[in-house]
Amino acid sequence: MSKLITSLTVVAALALSACSTTSPDVVQRHDAQRLSQVQDATVLSSRPVVVDGSQSGIGGVAGGVTGAIAGSSVGGRREGQVVGVLGAVAGAVIGNAIERSATREDALEIIVQLRNGERRAIIQAKGNETFNSGDPVVLVTTGGKTRVTRAPAVTPTAAPGSAS
Q1: What is the pLDDT of residues 74-131, one digit of tens each?
Q2: Which pTM value belongs to this model?
Q3: Rounded to an integer, what distance in angstroms lies between the CA atom of residue 92 and that of residue 68?
Q4: Rounded Cα distance, 60 and 55, in Å
Q5: Closest by Cα among 60, 43, 58 to 133
Q6: Beta carbons of 77 and 2 less than 8 angstroms apart
Q7: 3-state SS class at 44
């Protein structure tokens, strides 16, 4: 029974820690059908970085509970209590480390120059697009969060009433 509880606790912790993403290819539900600000820019540089994982406490709690249950089943009553406490502490430390590792993301730091000459740096998770110096991009800002995407190709249109 304790192995089942241990397995379920670890699976729940990993599932909850994997629910968040900063990928530019994933749009959050609350950002759908919202007007976003779009700015034209040019990529100055791009480099890979790692976004450190989070420690919400879920991994520590899950690991602590798992360690306490596993440890308390060792030996007699007194030994079980001591090993249960040690198991809880070790489980919490391991659970935090697992959560932090599971929520790390490979990302890009993209430095861009806006049309008005201002420079901005944006860090976002790696998506399907690559960015090289000189690439035209757009900055899409929604709800205080900005993502970089390639600028769509623009075809010139004739002004109304102009003769060809």
Answers
A1: 766 777 777 777 777 777 788 777 777 777 788 899 999 999 999 999 999 888 889 9
A2: 0.57
A3: 9
A4: 8
A5: 43
A6: no
A7: strand
